[in-house]
Design a protein that fits this description.
By secondary structure, the chain is α/β, with parallel strands linked by helices. The chain is about 40% helix and about 15% strand.
Length: about 300
């Protein structure tokens, strides 16, 4: 079966193929000659609220000829405790594909196993694969690619974004440095499993950003962590601001997957200075997700 469940489980060549196809679809937007989702209904099953994810998938499905069916977890029996495998077996008999944005990675994996239809991870607490692919597309557009580049991720090193960046670095070979407080660095068992010499971790934000071609950040409190008192107080030294970016390489770009909390993980002036790149990054969610769904429909690849 053909799914996108994580960056960890992807083959490097397929990461590149998805990005290549997204470039083609972006260039041809509004002039498509093929509509690989014609006659198909794709379910969007969301336990977490969203702006970019929902809009980009709904628009993308329509532009590929299909029909999106949005299902909030509160609107279906998942919200009343139905096992994910039962929901999967029902929807697998009615729709042609599923996009899931939820908390547990195991829910996405179980849905894929029991549904028998293409399943896309639109975000879990463990990974955010569609966002990473969109970011890689943006890096290609702005810098020509990631080969020989240093990417820095500054902020919560145990977040889904940090984890997905680690797996992308392992698959594609670029240098990645995670700059995080010690309490929020990738755990030892994760790094042992990763087993990647080109990924490093430091508690010094300036060291992480030193010589970086790409400086990446995200919110300090992920969705569902709003009640964790005191967490934000540990991240003051990891704000992306003008002083920190003095350490970055000449011609660097700044990425933020949004939404951004200006004055916390990134300053107002830096976000606005790099807004063209950051909102190009947001737009690329549409194109990369169209590429994913189109290739799934036409080629049935993992």
């Amino acid at each position: 079966m053909y799914h996108l469940l994580s960056i960890e489980s992807m083959y490097p060549q397929n990461i590149v193929k998805y990005i290549d196809h997204a470039v083609t679809l972006k260039t041809r937007r509004g002039k498509h000659e093929e509509f690989p989702l014609t006659g198909q209904v794709w379910a969007l099953i969301f336990s977490k609220s969203s702006t970019r994810t929902r809009v980009s998938f709904e628009v993308g499905i329509r532009e590929l000829g299909g029909s999106p069916l949005f299902l909030s977890a509160n609107d279906i029996q998942l919200g009343r405790g139905e096992p994910i495998k039962d929901t999967a077996r029902v929807l697998g008999r009615m729709v042609h594909g599923a996009v899931i944005r939820t908390y547990k990675q195991s829910d996405v994996e179980d849905f894929a196993e029991f549904s028998g239809i293409p399943t896309i991870n639109a975000l879990t607490d463990d990974e955010h694969p569609c966002q990473i692919l969109a970011d890689l597309l943006t890096i290609r557009e702005k810098l020509g690619g990631w080969d020989g580049k240093k990417i820095a991720f500054v902020g919560d090193g145990v977040s889904n974004m940090a984890r997905s960046w680690c797996w992308a670095a392992k698959h594609l070979g670029f240098e990645l440095t995670i700059g995080s407080p010690e309490a929020y660095q990738p755990p030892a068992d994760f790094l042992a499993k990763l087993n990647c010499a080109n990924v490093s971790v430091t508690s010094d934000a300036r060291e992480a950003v030193s010589g970086a071609d790409v400086v990446n950040t995200d919110v300090w409190l992920s969705m569902g962590q709003e009640g964790e008192a005191g967490k934000e107080a540990q991240f003051g030294a990891y704000q992306v601001n003008a002083g920190l970016l003095e350490e970055a390489a000449s011609g660097h770009i700044v990425l933020h997957c949004l939404p951004a909390y200006r004055g916390k993980e990134i300053t107002e002036d830096i976000l606005e200075r790099h807004s063209a790149t950051i909102f190009q990054q947001a737009e690329n969610r549409l194109h990369i997700q169209k590429g994913i769904m189109a290739r799934m429909a036409k080629h049935r690849i993992l």
